[in-house]
Amino acid sequence: MSSPDPDVLPDKQLDEMAESAKQATALLKALAHEGRLMILCHISSGEKTVTELEELLGQNQPAVSQQLARLREEGIIEARRVGRTIYYSLADGRARAVLELVYDLFCAKADRSS
């Protein structure tokens, strides 16, 4: 009888890997939009309202709200209501880690050259 091939993963590990890949794909798809990425960059420094994000992004309320809705659906951000104002903040530590990496790769160099 031959020994098991070390390159072949057991079914359980394959299932776990597939689930991890599915979760990673969902996160990366949500981040793979310039508007959503900009929202997350602003929110990563502290919670923001839709009005604050409109001003920071130079976009109208429907456009910002649409992107916020997608980020909420994915569980990347969360909302906190105070009266009529809703504050958005980062809810997913994995998204924060990806944002930090993106910042280090693409933004830190620009900051150093200014």
TrEMBL record:
HTH arsR-type domain residues: 14-110
CDD domains reported for this sequence: HTH_ARSR (cd00090)
Keywords associated with the record: DNA-binding, Transcription, Transcription regulation
UniProt keyword Transcription regulation present: yes
Domain of life: Bacteria
Entries under SMART domains matching the protein: HTH_ARSR
PROSITE patterns xrefs: HTH_ARSR_2
Any one GO molecular-function label of the UniProt entry: DNA binding
Stated name of the protein: Biofilm growth-associated repressor
Source organism: Candidatus Filomicrobium marinum
Lineage: Bacteria, Pseudomonadati, Pseudomonadota, Alphaproteobacteria, Hyphomicrobiales
Gene from which this protein is expressed: bigR
